[in-house]
Amino acid sequence: MAKKFPIHPKNPERICWGCDKYCPTDSLACGNGSERTQHPAELFGDDWAEWGLDADAEPAKAAEK
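The structure corresponding to this sequence follows.
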């Protein structure tokens, strides 16, 4: 991935995020597939970059039966 990967791009649907080339959707240069790779914000929501950052936190306890 690129050194400065955009966390919240304005129009992520216009770019393929599969490699560092960031090609427009109509000219995929790397050939990593027939469709563009989606940005993580498109797949997981706007808070995708915050997941797993609190590693020291105590895990949630399972609900007792």
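The first helix runs from residue 40 to 44.
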